[in-house]
Amino acid sequence: MGCFNRKHAVLSPLVAVVLAVPTLASAERIQASLSGYEEVPSVSTVAIGDFRAMISPDGGSIDFELSYFDLQGDVTMAHIHFANADVNGSVVAWLCGTAAIPGPAGTATCPESGTVSGTITASEVVGSSATQQIMAGDLDAVIAAIRAGAAYVNVHSVLSPGGEIRGQIRGSRRK
Fold first, then answer.
1. Contact 165/68 with Cβ under 8 angstroms?
2. What number is the average pLDDT over the span 113-141?
3. CA angle in degrees (0–180, nearest 5) for 92-97-98
4. Interatomic CA distance for residues 113 and 105, integer angstroms
5. Per-residue model confidence as pLDDT tens digits over 60-103
6. Alpha carbon of residue 1 to chain centroid
7. How far, in Å, CA of 113 to CA of 69, rounded?
8. What are the beta bridge partners of residue 111?
């Protein structure tokens, strides 16, 4: 016990806390406001929606909540797509589906109006078209697209199969 002294007893826990601080990151908020005017081409609808989500500190998941109201047609599905504003892009993750268009196994059921929530992990990333180069399971690429402003959420209906409402996802780390 010749090397132990009180100073080391006090400093050791402080050093452990200081070393741990860089690994403590906060979740990153992302969001989108959905309307028919953001669809490509634009849709004249009274429907509105809101997408709010948190990217986990380690980037391993996205917890989301999607709310939408007053769609003029029966809801068929909702997704995250990979594309800039004013351009249509590939689906990269399902948010919800219906009996007619259920989505991959485990996909939540879309309400006709209201809120659906869930968690997107790498296993929920379906990938994009070959030309867009996001591979199935590549959540890092989806998060990078979101941070770059190159992802949107939309809700599809029977009257607007291409999407009735849409919103570009905005994040706190956008450059």
1. yes
2. 93
3. 160
4. 22
5. 999 999 999 999 999 999 999 999 999 999 999 999 999 999 99
6. 55
7. 5
8. none
